[in-house]
DNA sequence: TTCGCGGGTTGATCCTGATCAAGGCGTGGG
DNA sequence: CCCACGCCTTGATCAGGATCAACCCGCGAA
């Protein structure tokens, strides 16, 4: 809490190139983390774990996109987590995965076996504090997401998702999202639908509508350009300050 | 994590009669908590804090119901947290409340001023671990809730809410929800609507429908009796094991 | 080259839940 | 006693997304 959230830049000489657990780049701690880490790669579409499976590692996303999702018996699915590079995956102290985890694109993880990681948490309270921080952030994000799912129109949902992705991608680059900048949508229409509680047809239609209304420009299917970020924000229905201050 | 979640019964001689932060009833820790605690009461409907306000305490619900909610400029609101007795309120390390907090009924809190509480967390890692545990639980609950909001029908939403409330009330009494038992709905139709992302009319209609179909019995507006819990569970759309194992 | 397939768009129609509206019940205050 | 108000129910109608269906485009494999 009195611990600043370390960002990529100030962490650029850190052997773990993503901020998830890199609390303050203390060399001793890093050396220990270094010793228990390993990398794993997955292909797009590949499931990492199913809900209910044993999950004996925690990890941090190096490249690619992973998603957490829940599926009902009849096949309806709702995405409940979207992990971009530098995001943390897994739950220290919890052996069983409560959701399906899927590689939504080609994916590389930096993994830590759970037991040694937990042992290290015991010795290094700072890591525990950092994890509490991160979990609170996730909880805030989940609750923003609940507002989107419960009360927003399809158009507002799409605008909200675009805003969130733009903000998260910008945050990785240490900037705020800028009018006129363009970014790559890392999700298919179907994944967007699973994120937003819509059907893919509705997603497609609303994206087209935002394009028609010049809120966004599309280059190909995935490259999004936002002429005026304020205009997009206004479409989200959120008040001007844009949700969480972060 | 290697810390069992302490329940009310094993904590019955504990001066703090609710389990939120009572990690293991260590007498030293409790004495310290005891020294910084105080009680506050609120009337039904009274706001505790608004989103964006300074919030200089954390607390645990003793009696009554509190809710966390988000409101859009045009008045649409979504409940994002429902706090029953023994639930924890507030975020160590975060001075600013991100949501509106409201007393949904007459409410008594057991409060701890944030600074001393955080200081104590520093000295007692067990409390930090407990808070991480609790936050992970809240995150799981939020994600179950996202499935409800994003993908369930109105009828499934109502059944899910009734199940959740029955389970949480039963958990306070250390039992599983039982067929034939009845419980008090602690929410108005409007609050149920805010919880589920519906209108109050739809809530009313679906409750009536469940009653008509003998899934539940109503005594008055708020007393619910569930003749067969399996039948209610089947209405939620969840698979038989009922979501999270907890 | 052709085919099949994954991903995407668009149209027509349907249906669930929102909206608008009226009224019932119980309770507390004048 | 009556009235007003909070809470809830029910009805009629509307509309936003879901559903069903057709088709496009680009790409990799045969």
Short description:
2 copies of one chain form a homodimer. With 246 residues, chain A is an alpha+beta fold.
Provide structural commentary.
Two copies of one chain form a homodimer. Chain A has helices at 27-36, 114-123, 125-151, 154-172, 189-196, 200-212, 229-236; strands at residues 37-42, 47-49, 57-63, 66-71, 77-83, 88-89, 100-103, 107-113, 182-184, 217-219, 223-225. Residues 1-18 of chain A have low confidence and may be disordered. Chain A contains seven helices and eleven strands. In chain A, helix 2 packs across helix 3. Chain A folds into two domains: 9-144, Jelly Rolls (Sandwich); 153-236, Winged helix-like DNA-binding domain superfamily/Winged helix DNA-binding domain (Arc Repressor Mutant, subunit A, Orthogonal Bundle). Chain A starts with 26 loop residues before the first helix and ends in a 10-residue tail after the last helix. Helices cover 39% and strands 21% of the residues of chain A. In chain A, the strands form three sheets. Chain A has a four-stranded antiparallel sheet with strand order 1-8-3-6. A four-stranded antiparallel sheet of chain A has the order 2-7-4-5. In chain A, strands 9-11-10 form a three-stranded antiparallel sheet, with no helix packed on it. With 246 residues, chain A is α+β, with helices and mostly antiparallel strands. The structure holds a DNA duplex (30 and 30 nucleotides).
């Amino acid at each position: 809490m009195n611990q600043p959230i370390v960002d990529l830049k100030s962490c650029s000489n850190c052997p773990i190139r993503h901020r998830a657990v890199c609390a303050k780049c203390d060399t001793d701690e890093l050396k220990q983390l270094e010793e228990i880490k390993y990398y794993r790669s997955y292909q797009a579409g590949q499931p990492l774990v199913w809900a209910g499976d044993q999950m004996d590692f925690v990890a941090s996303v190096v490249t690619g996109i992973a998603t957490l999702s829940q599926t009902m018996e009849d096949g309806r699915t709702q995405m409940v987590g979207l992990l971009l590079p530098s995001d943390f995956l897994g739950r220290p102290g919890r052996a069983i995965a409560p959701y399906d985890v899927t590689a939504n694109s080609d994916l590389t993880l930096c993994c830590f076996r759970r037991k040694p990681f937990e042992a290290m948490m015991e010795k290094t309270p700072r890591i525990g504090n950092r994890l509490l921080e991160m979990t609170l952030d996730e909880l805030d994000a989940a609750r923003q997401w609940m507002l989107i799912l419960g009360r927003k129109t399809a158009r507002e949902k799409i605008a909200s998702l675009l805003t969130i992705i733009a903000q998260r991608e910008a945050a990785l680059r240490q900037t705020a999202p800028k009018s006129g900048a363009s970014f790559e949508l890392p999700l298919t229409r179907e994944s967007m639908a699973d994120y937003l509680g819509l059907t893919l047809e509705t997603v497609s239609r609303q994206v087209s509508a935002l394009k028609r209304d010049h809120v966004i420009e599309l280059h190909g299917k995935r490259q999004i350009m936002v002429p005026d970020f304020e205009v997009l924000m206004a479409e989200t229905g959120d008040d001007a300050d844009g949700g969480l201050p972060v």
